[in-house]
Amino acid sequence: MSYAVKEIYFTWQGEGVHTGRPGVFLRFAGCNLWDGVESHRENAVCWFCDTNFVGTNGPGGGRYNSAADLADRVLEEWTSNALRAGNPASEPFVVCTGGEPLLQLDGFLVDELRARGFYVAVETNGTLPPPVEVDWLCVSPKGGSQLAVRAGDELKLVYPQHSASPEAFLSLDFDHFSLQPLDGPDRERNTRLALDYCRNHPRWRLSVQTHKLLGIP
């Protein structure tokens, strides 16, 4: 199997439980909840998507013909940047994201990444079951979609969303529940709403997109 990759880059995780952890983001091209065409956004299931997952023209992007080739490129990104950032002793950390990574991520790639020492995290919309167990599974539900993944490490809900109230997910089998303010022109209002909700429902933790505040990828 070949893999269509939008971009591969080193940064620090900006949101959720792993905020502040250095790692490589492996962003796959393509999504099943929006085609990425701006004129289609209004009618998309995930109309608030804030990432560019169309094409393979980002840094490190391209079509990789094997899991080994792609894992080697991820390791190269980690090795060169972790040493430069002063983190040579850190456990290699890769975040498989998108778009929707589970359209492409398979057991062969997970095995190749692990063989190179990586802790493998996945950020998914939860509409597709993961093909194999990964080290960290974060599900971000989208209102109007059907969840196929009902257990994992973290459920990170963008808030507020029509047809996706936090109460609907508390019965699911996740270790952490994170509430993330919806970005956009109403971000300040949405942040206040998320703060109030977390204050009154302490099972939820506030997740802020710190990478946007810091101006890093």
Keyphrases for this structure?
217 residues; alpha/beta
Explain this structure.
With 217 residues, the protein is an alpha/beta fold. The protein has a single domain, classed as TIM Barrel (Alpha-Beta Barrel). Helix content is 21%, strand content 26%. It contains 4 helices and 9 strands. The protein has helices spanning 67-84, 107-115, 187-200, 210-214; strands at residues 3-12, 22-28, 62-64, 93-97, 119-124, 136-139, 151-159, 173-181, 204-206. It has a 9-stranded mixed β-sheet with strand order 3-1-2-4-5-6-7-8-9. It starts with a strand and ends with a helix. The model has no long low-confidence stretch (mean pLDDT 95).
Brief write-up:
The chain is α/β, with parallel strands linked by helices and 217 residues long.
CATH class: Alpha Beta
Roughly what percent helix?
10-25%
What best-fitting shape do the alpha-carbon axes yield?
globular
Sheet-strand content, in percent, reads 25-35%
Q: What is the makeup of the main sheet? A: 9 strands, mixed
What's the layout of helices and strands?
Elements: E1 3-12, E2 22-28, E3 62-64, H1 67-84, E4 93-97, H2 107-115, E5 119-124, E6 136-139, E7 151-159, E8 173-181, H3 187-200, E9 204-206, H4 210-214
Parallel strand pairs: 2-4, 4-5, 5-6, 6-7, 7-8, 8-9
Antiparallel strand pairs: 1-2, 1-3
